[in-house]
What does this fold into?
Amino acid sequence: MSKLNIVLFGPPGAGKGTQSNFLIEKFNLVHLSTGDLLRAELKAETELGLAAKELMDNGELVADNIVIGMIRNMMEAHNEAPGFIFDGFPRTEAQAQALDEMLNAKSEPIVAMLSLEVPEEELVKRLLERGKTSGRVDDQEEATARKRIVVYSRETSPLKDYYKAQGKYKAIDGVGSLADITARLVKAIG
Ligand code: ADP
It folds into this structure.
């Protein structure tokens, strides 16, 4: 059976992490969040984590080769997975191309790119709310939240066209109850 490899896409605060939790359970997928992987490196104070810290705290992107390497390692470690949910990756065209190369080499391409659409003011509200409990430096200041949205619009949002060209882009309304949004995602996965 072909693997259910999904890119869960959207701006910071769109709900990718939350919705990933539902989808990995429902479809038995392995969750690959580059944000989570980087925060684990940071917590363990690895060289990689220390190098990424300042960029992350400031809402800037970490270098492509670093996140691509992390994803490659995790995919190799979970070769038997029925599929992956890529969350927060790819964030640049170079990352999207590297991901396609890795997956095409195994004939296990991305089947869908599900893009959670949420208005900017709602995103900022959610990020600052999360900041009260997440302990994440990048969720504390409105300026940093907005900076991440700007970086998303400039570097990451163009990937919609990349996946549209492959016929894989699906826009999902990311506003509403958690259960409603999950239902929209499940329906889009089909
Ligand atoms: P968000 O909630 O903003 O979507 P993430 O948890 O996905 O945040 O990522 C937090 C930070 O980690 C990003 O702002 C960025 O510095 C870094 N990061 C995560 N994924 C990537 C990636 N694919 N490419 C570059 N940097 C990344």
